[in-house]
Amino acid sequence: MSLIHAILVVLTEAPQSGYDLAKRFDGSVGFFWQATHQQIYRELNKLESQGWIISQPIVQSGRPDKKMFSVTDLGQQQLQDWILQPCELTAIKEEILIKLYGGYLVSGEAIVKEIAHHQQLHRQKLAAFQQIEAKFFNDPAKCSKQARFSYLTLRLGIRIEQEWVAWCEEVLQSI
Amino acid sequence: MSLIHAILVVLTEAPQSGYDLAKRFDGSVGFFWQATHQQIYRELNKLESQGWIISQPIVQSGRPDKKMFSVTDLGQQQLQDWILQPCELTAIKEEILIKLYGGYLVSGEAIVKEIAHHQQLHRQKLAAFQQIEAKFFNDPAKCSKQARFSYLTLRLGIRIEQEWVAWCEEVLQSI
DNA sequence: TCTGCCATGTAAGTTGTTACATGATTAT
DNA sequence: ATAATCATGTAACAACTTACATGGCAGA
What we know:
The structure is a homodimer. The first copy, chain A, is mostly helical. Chain A has 7 helices and 2 strands. Chain A has helices at about 1-15, 20-25, 35-50, 75-85, 95-100, 110-135, 145-175, and strands at about 55-60, 65-70. In chain A, strand 1 (about 55-60) and strand 2 form a beta hairpin. Chain A starts with a helix and ends with a helix. At the A-B interface, helix 1, helix 4, helix 5, helix 6 and helix 7 of A face helix 1, helix 4, helix 5, helix 6 and helix 7 of B.
């Protein structure tokens, strides 16, 4: 359900091809929603047959032709309706927690090593997010309304990553 | 992949039926991994045909017969091997962030209302986690090794929920 | 009487993943 | 030379969700 709406949001920002979308889902938008190009193409076909988006073929020389997709009025309406509907909390689903839960089955050193590794990965992700913050949102007051909303999603990422790093520290202290 | 191992971890704690497992995945273990009873029964069949678990039929009067599953030596070994393998970070996948990202498409009041509602839900979840903490882990020193590991997973839940509440506050301030 | 619990299962549909396929252009 | 980028797609499979199905027993 949400993939459809995630695509609509991104297409609303700017009309683009499936290929372009796949890149956004691998980068910026991918921080809060992921999709492979196969999923995206499948949903684009569905969305177009429903009339929520339309495509315009762009003939190119030297590289493959592409289809530029843009959101129709109907699609825009559907997206707004969806945004206005209240949504549930998303449950945590974390492999590392299963491993830690069964941590008593293996050696303490192995767990320490794994958590330390995990902490390292979270530190890297945090650093990457903070760089984006410094680069693109150094003065939130100057941002457009649209940019301020995307900044807020980034803020969640930063907060969550900080907490992961802190939790890993707590686990390491505790073992 | 992980569902199989989550089942193995829970069955290692205590042999139980598919029905019992489904309840655990709806409660305690469900905090970090979710599964419906349909998924669980399917995986149990697979696990048994692989020889990672074995079942013992329990005939009951007045209520349906059941199968008690327990982990075999092979299953135990496979679980340990899996725990020892390093794992990747899990990406965030949050519907609310798509909605906030497209927040400029709807009225500010609607967004405020939705975020406030979300904050309320996270507060409730946090309170529930903290109650479990106070009830079952009020003295971590007295806990068994096994209980200390499950306590650490709860600690992550508490930390993440706290951060969600704080982030919602930040969003509300910012709009 | 009706709801909920116990206990397991089938079936269908939707998502998500992985692999394969094409073919020119540009950078190393 | 070789790999990566651009651009789209098919096919098969794995995972997950939702609905349907059974049937006795206990409690409000």
